[in-house]
Amino acid sequence: KQFNIDRRTEPVIAIGGGVCLDVVGLAASLFRRRTPYIRVPTTTLSYVDASVGAKSGVNFAGSKNRLGMYVPPCAALLDSCFFETQECR
């Protein structure tokens, strides 16, 4: 089937915590030389990171943030309603 989706202009939507957003951000920046992506953070730390960060790094070979790119998302959708789903500490 063909869905008529242009993979260079249609964004990938990443919904989740910090690790999920970093993996999707790295994959999107490497796939076809920067596929646009949108971050939707669901945890407190990823909420802060997604609102100001352009780095998407992942751990590799025992080193922190060994692989990564400095490519900002085309948008970050910040919704504080996700905080209600987290356990209180």
Q: What layout of secondary structure does this protein have?
A:
Blueprint (H helix, E strand, L loop, with lengths): L11 E5 L1 H13 L6 E5 L2 H9 L2 E6 L2 E8 L4 E2 L13
Gist of the model:
This protein is of the alpha/beta class and 89 residues long.
Describe this structure in words.
It is a single chain. The chain is α/β, with parallel strands linked by helices and 89 residues long. The chain has helices spanning 18-30, 44-52; strands at 12-16, 37-41, 55-60, 63-70, 75-76. A hairpin with a 2-residue loop joins strand 3 (55-60) and strand 4. The radius of gyration is 14 Å and the shape is globular. The model has no long low-confidence stretch (mean pLDDT 85).
Overall residue-averaged pLDDT value = 85
Please provide the count of β strands.
Answer: 5
What is the string of SSEs from the N terminus onward? EHEHEEE
Low-confidence stretches: none
Termini separation: 48 Å
Assembly state (oligomeric): single chain
Helical content, roughly? 10-25%
Outline type: globular
Enumerate how many helices there are, as a single number.
2
**What integer value in Å does the Rg equal?**
14 Å
Q: Strand share of the residues?
A: 25-35%
Structural class: alpha/beta
The order of strands across the largest sheet is 1-2-5
Largest sheet: 3 strands, parallel
